[in-house]
Design brief:
alpha+beta; 31% helix; 15 strands; disordered N terminus; 3-stranded antiparallel β-sheet; 6-stranded antiparallel β-sheet
Length: 396
């Protein structure tokens, strides 16, 4: 099934990623391959890819299951998967580099970042940092549908005359910033794809470069994430195409008995606007793990691309209102230390990335099906089980 019809209610990404596998729920296994096999047996997805790292070395990686529930091709290490909202951490890293280079400022006001965009007076003094921390006051736009804050028809109208994603984002920024704020900037947390789209537009305006080029130059290319692309699923070599994982949905029947339905989210206006928030970002699971390791090295002062304090800013909640959310990262105390993590989904894939600076552990996991709504996520449990397994080997 390809979802591209205006009447559909379209899911862009999960709500603010606060749901965790149960604290006391971990799988028992000896190898990462065994962990992946256990997760697939929960029947929440046709396939999973998972990488577990410690001290910059791969302790184990595994790719188990079929690319499509209707086929027999097995997933491989070279397959590209959609990472969804984990892209927010990548967008924030790109913007942090532009700030380090003097192109932007953390306290840059929206009125300065987008001087030619009309906006409600409440937004004029909101800052770039607040956009990245979801406390700018802008509306969520995490879904597109009749019960969402923006409809498919509105998205089509906003982007109808846009010949490039950069122009589409500029037009979207005008639309979003003309709408009533959800709260006073800096005080109320509202997880927002729209905020990240506006942040991307500010970067484009100030550098005269496209968001996609900035990400390739300052994040993907620099880190060595050679597989990373912005795409529309189904394009050659991308998720949903031949010899690549297909996305799926999972009917909410519970107990791991739900059937899989092949599914791709293909709605061009969303891909033109919401790249900075995570729509259409594809890569291998290993490249996702590389990004996690890059963050881990930075937090531990072993990455000179940004200063340690700049990496820590990305992994620190905004002073007021953001609770446990930094710039593209969520923070949780688990297994005796504070972890940074994020998840992501457009309804067809589900991704998870965990970074533990103290234990020097990184776990990346992606499944080719949207997350379950009526039971504990096997992908999340597998990811945290990988963390626990890696920590048990720290002193070995």
């Amino acid at each position: 099934m390809v979802c591209s019809v205006l009447g559909y209610s379209l899911l862009l990404t999960n709500l603010a990623p606060t749901a965790l596998a149960q604290e006391d729920r971990y799988y028992t296994f000896s190898t990462v391959r065994e962990l992946a096999q256990i997760a697939v047996k929960r029947k929440q997805f046709p396939a999973i890819g998972i990488v577990v790292m410690r001290n910059g070395k791969v302790l184990g990686e595994s790719y188990i299951g079929t690319r499509s529930a209707t086929g027999s091709d097995q997933v491989t290490a070279n397959d590209r998967w959609l990472v969804g909202s984990i892209t927010k951490a990548m967008t924030a890293t790109m913007i942090a580099k532009l700030i380090s280079n003097g192109k932007l400022q953390w306290n840059q006001k929206l009125s300065d970042g987008l001087p030619n965009v009309p906006m409600k007076v409440e937004y004029r003094n909101a800052t770039l940092h607040q956009l990245l921390s979801h406390v700018s006051g802008v509306q969520a736009d995490t879904g597109i549908g009749l019960n969402s804050t923006i409809t498919p028809a509105e998205m089509v109208k906003i982007t109808s005359k846009a010949s490039t994603p950069t122009i589409a984002r500029s037009e979207y920024a005008k639309h979003l910033l003309s709408r009533q704020p959800v709260g006073k900037p800096g005080l109320q947390f509202e997880y927002s794809n729209g905020g990240y789209a506006v942040a991307g537009s500010i970067a484009e305006h100030k550098t005269k470069m496209s968001f996609e080029t900035l990400m390739q130059d300052l994040v993907f290319g620099h880190i060595g994430m050679k597989s990373a692309r912005f795409c529309s699923p189904g394009e050659t070599g991308m998720p949903g195409a031949a010899k690549q994982p297909m996305g799926h949905t999972l009917a909410a029947n519970g107990n791991g008995k739900s059937p899989f339905s092949p599914y791709l989210f293909q709605f061009k206006p969303a891909y033109m606007v919401f790249g900075p928030a995570g729509i259409g970002t594809a890569m291998t699971v290993m490249d996702l793990a590389r990004f996690g390791q890059y963050q881990l090295d930075g937090l531990n002062g072993k990455n000179r691309y940004l200063t340690q304090s700049e990496f820590r800013r990305l992994h620190t909640p905004y002073a007021a209102g953001a609770k446990n959310y930094g710039c593209g990262w969520v923070f949780v105390d688990r297994l005796g230390e504070t972890a940074s993590f994020h998840n992501g989904s457009d309804g067809s894939f589900y991704s998870y990335l965990i970074v533990l600076p103290k234990s020097r552990v990184v776990v990346a996991a992606i499944a080719n099906c949207g997350p379950p709504t009526d039971e504990e996520s096997a992908l999340e449990t597998a990811a945290w089980s990988g963390v626990k397994w890696a920590r048990s080997r720290i002193d070995k």
